[in-house]
């Protein structure tokens, strides 16, 4: 019996690429907004890697995003007039069309919460912007570490006072699911084949025998209901 579903957010629940590009286009009309958004996102994992590897203490994602914004602006040769305002673009990401209805259906079946590398503050503001109906906010901030470190998944389970096998990790990224399954969580894959744009070449399909492989969140809710019996 799955009692809780925890979700990757960036890419799985929300369309970061189009949403951030929209904000960049408003603030920096002289640059290729989508290229800037992709370059900004490309700094995400390297910035977290230093923390995961112990070379730096935990830093909330907003601060990493701001540091990464400065790096990308230098590469593009532009000055950002209000860095904090543009950095808040990550709090205004549009949900994929199936997400809100799917989450509401899933909420009737189990606890639902983000297990994101975003901070509690970022996830709360993003939920308010997009209408994401979480029961609570879990993830990196409570673990003081970043996925795919096992502590992040386990801290989320512990916060709910649930054994890992009572919790299902939902993600559009196979590496997220491999890490969650390695510490005992159930897994569900939902593809987002346009997350990185029309040329996306990874995470187009399930790369393992996940407990659920669903077409979208509405399909996920049907499959979870069937799993619950």
Write a concise keyword list for the protein shown above:
single chain; 229 residues; alpha/beta; Rossmann fold; DNA polymerase, domain 1; 2 domains; 6-stranded parallel beta sheet; 12% strand; 2-HAD; HAD-like_sf; EC 3.8.1.2; HAD-SF_hydro_IA; (S)-2-haloacid dehalogenase
Write a compact overview of the structure shown.
The protein is an alpha/beta fold and 229 residues long.
Spans of at least 5 consecutive residues whose pLDDT stays below 50 are none
CATH architecture of the largest domain: 3-Layer(aba) Sandwich
Helical coverage, percent range:
40-55%
CATH class of the largest domain: Alpha Beta
Integer count of domains: 2
SSE run = EEHHHHHEHEHEHHEHEEH
- CATH topology of the largest domain, anyone? Rossmann fold
- Order of strands, widest sheet: 5-4-1-6-7-8
Radius of gyration equals 17 Å
Calculate the terminal CA-CA distance, rounded to whole Å.
9 Å
CATH superfamily of the largest domain: HAD superfamily/HAD-like
Residue-averaged pLDDT: 97
Class from helix and strand fractions: alpha/beta
Number of strands: 8
Specify the overall morphology: globular
Strand content: 5-15%
Enumerate how many helices there are, as a single number.
Answer: 11
Q: Mind describing the biggest β-sheet?
A: 6 strands, parallel
Function: Catalyzes the hydrolytic dehalogenation of small (S)-2-haloalkanoic acids to yield the corresponding (R)-2-hydroxyalkanoic acids.
Protein name: (S)-2-haloacid dehalogenase
EC number: 3.8.1.2
Catalytic activity: an (S)-2-haloacid + H2O = a (2R)-2-hydroxycarboxylate + a halide anion + H(+)
